[in-house]
Each structure stands twice: as structure tokens, then as C-alpha cells.
């Protein structure tokens, strides 16, 4: 993993296919106890959005690597008083060994990374959520003992960060990816084209507004909230439009007999997913959530390697 030392992760596409597989392999080894690594470094967490899993999983992962975290909540730093982002980036780059940033605009993340001479990790932006997809792919690998040749169907808001990162991640590991979304909410066309280029015709990259067709024989059904952070005012208006895309027993019955269900959480039960499905025998949501810690531990160990 020498090639990842000191690098940023702003998008899944920042990794090569080989590097992605290496991170996932290391995550599985760390989870099983086959490997134990120590990275006595300091990770900063700069989160402008609410977080449970991302904040706690990064914190525990860093602790288990023998390192420390510093919570850099923007509301208690000079960023909240108007200090230019580039100035903050220059200074924190001299104090910390790495920083994970959770913010709205991808361009702010990219600006920070261009001025901070330390690894910068995308802990979620409106455009992408790469660390979540590392955990998602790890969960699929654990469940099926493979990823290549499987089909993942994402149902819901095609314009959100999960749809974007799943498009890239699935294409990279040779999985078919179907995005089932109302026609008013298509994914970013640049990311769709990027995923198609990665897939190179070897796997499907399909965008559709037909949820029943999209889930046919799918191995993984995936959903997320219908209104992401910052879109709460639209939530009630979106419900009637998105209801046909709800992950429920009827849609699940059309998928592969061994299909699993994933949700990145938090979930609005009986909206994007029914309570029965998220608590059902096909759900792997809690394994998926646990794997955030293991996947991010592997990522941190790789970026902060002393080897």
C-alpha cells in the first residue's frame, strides 16, 4: 500500500482499482484480527454537517491504530468567524497528520486539499461519500465472497452523494450498477459518464425511473433518505414522488433469492425502507454500519503508513 502513503481521498476515483481492492482486503484482515497495525498519528475531524457513524467510526478507528483525534467543529474554530479556508488549511496541515472533512461543497474540500500538505479525506460532501462505499463494498464481499458479476440496485434520490459514489465504486470492482430514481432526480451526468468509462462495457451502468424493472434479479438493494442534509424543507413534498421506490417486501421479492438489503443510515422507517425489511433476514445494515470502522481503519493505516 506504499502508493497510498500521504495521498488524499476526495473521491473513490482517486484510487486505482488495485488500490481499492487492497484497502478492502486490509479492512477484512483488520476486522478478523489477522493484522494489527499501529499508526500513532493525529487525525483532525472538521465536520460542518451532523454525524454519528462517520464521527464515531473514524474516532474509534484512529484510537485502535494507537493515534488520536481532534474535533475541529467549525463553530468553535476561527472558520466560524470568517477565517479564509486556505489559511486554516495551511496551519492545520502543520499540526495534524491527516484530516477528515464533512462539508457541503466538493470544491471546498478540494480547496482545502490543495493548501494542506497532509492527507485529506472526504468524510461526505454533497457530491460524494467515498468512505461509506468502502464499507458497502466490504459488506458485499463478506456476504457473497465476491463482488465482480453481482448487481447492485440503488433506489431513491439519484442526485445524492450515495448514488454518485456507488456508481464509481461498483464500476471499479466489476459490479453492475442500476440507479432507480424519479426522472426529476438523475445523477450527475459527469459521474455517470465516468462510471461508464470505468466499466468499459464490461458491466452495466443503468439509470432508470422503473423501480420494479431495476430490482429484477439484483443481488443488493440499496437505499438512502429521500431528502439529504440541507434538503429537509423538501422532505414532505418528495414523499409522493419517491414512494414507488420504497424498499419493501414487494420489491425485494423481485430481486435475487439471496439478495441482501443495505442502507447507509440514518433511516426514515416506512419511507425509503419499511421497518419489516430493515429488521428482516435480508438486512445487512448493521454489518454495513460496523464496517465503516474497519474500512476507515484500513484507509487511515494506508494513508499514514510509515513503511
From TrEMBL:
One of its GO terms (molecular function) is amino acid binding. It catalyses: carbamoyl phosphate + L-ornithine = L-citrulline + phosphate + H(+). It comes from the Bacteria. L-ornithine binds at residues 161, 224, 228-229. Transmembrane segments: none annotated. Residues 7-142 form the Aspartate/ornithine carbamoyltransferase carbamoyl-P binding domain. GO terms for biological process: citrulline biosynthetic process; L-arginine biosynthetic process via ornithine. PROSITE patterns: CARBAMOYLTRANSFERASE. Keywords: Amino-acid biosynthesis, Arginine biosynthesis, Cytoplasm, Transferase. One of its GO terms (cellular component) is cytoplasm. The keyword Amino-acid biosynthesis applies. Its EC number is 2.1.3.3. It is an enzyme of class 2 (transferase). The keyword Cytoplasm applies. Residues 149-302 form the Aspartate/ornithine carbamoyltransferase Asp/Orn-binding domain. It is found in: Cytoplasm. Carbamoyl phosphate binds at residues 51-54, 78, 102, 129-132, 264-265, 292. Pathway: Amino-acid biosynthesis; L-arginine biosynthesis; L-arginine from L-ornithine and carbamoyl phosphate: step 1/3. Belongs to the aspartate/ornithine carbamoyltransferase superfamily. OTCase family. This is Ornithine carbamoyltransferase. The lineage of its organism: Bacteria, Bacillati, Cyanobacteriota, Cyanophyceae, Oscillatoriophycideae.
Amino acid at each position: 500500500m506504499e502508493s497510498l502513503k500521504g495521498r488524499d481521498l476526495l473521491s473513490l476515483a482517486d484510487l486505482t482499482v488495485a488500490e481499492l481492492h487492497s484497502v478492502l482486503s486490509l479492512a477484512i484482515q483488520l476486522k478478523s484480527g489477522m493484522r494489527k497495525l499501529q499508526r500513532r498519528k493525529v487525525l483532525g475531524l472538521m465536520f460542518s454537517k451532523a454525524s454519528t457513524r462517520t464521527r464515531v467510526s473514524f474516532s474509534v478507528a484512529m484510537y485502535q491504530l494507537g493515534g488520536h483525534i481532534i474535533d475541529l467543529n467549525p463553530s468553535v474554530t476561527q472558520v466560524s468567524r470568517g477565517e479564509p479556508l486556505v489559511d486554516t488549511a495551511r496551519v492545520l496541515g502543520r499540526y495534524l497528520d491527516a484530516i477528515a472533512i464533512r462539508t457541503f461543497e466538493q470544491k471546498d474540500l478540494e480547496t482545502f486539499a490543495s493548501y494542506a500538505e497532509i492527507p485529506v479525506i472526504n468524510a461526505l460532501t454533497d457530491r460524494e461519500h467515498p468512505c461509506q462505499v468502502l464499507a458497502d463494498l466490504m459488506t458485499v464481499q463478506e456476504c457473497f465472497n465476491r463482488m465482480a458479476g453481482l448487481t447492485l440496485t440503488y433506489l431513491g434520490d439519484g442526485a445524492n452523494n450515495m448514488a454518485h459514489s456507488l456508481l464509481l465504486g461498483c464500476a471499479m470492482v466489476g459490479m453492475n450498477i442500476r440507479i432507480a430514481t424519479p426522472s426529476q432526480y438523475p445523477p450527475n451526468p459527469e459521474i455517470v459518464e465516468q462510471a461508464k468509462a470505468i466499466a468499459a462495457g464490461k458491466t452495466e451502468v443503468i439509470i432508470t425511473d422503473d423501480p420494479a424493472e431495476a430490482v429484477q434479479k439484483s443481488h443488493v438493494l440499496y437505499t438512502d433518505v429521500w431528502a439529504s442534509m440541507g434538503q429537509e424543507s423538501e422532505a414532505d413534498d418528495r414523499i409522493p414522488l419517491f414512494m414507488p421506490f420504497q424498499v419493501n417486501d414487494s420489491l425485494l421479492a423481485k430481486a435475487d433469492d439471496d439478495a441482501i438489503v443495505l442502507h447507509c443510515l440514518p433511516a426514515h422507517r416506512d419511507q425509503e425502507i419499511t421497518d419489516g425489511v430493515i429488521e428482516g433476514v435480508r438486512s445487512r445494515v448493521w454489518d454495513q454500519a460496523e464496517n465503516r470502522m474497519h474500512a476507515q481503519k484500513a484507509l487511515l493505516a494506508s494513508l499514514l503508513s510509515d513503511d
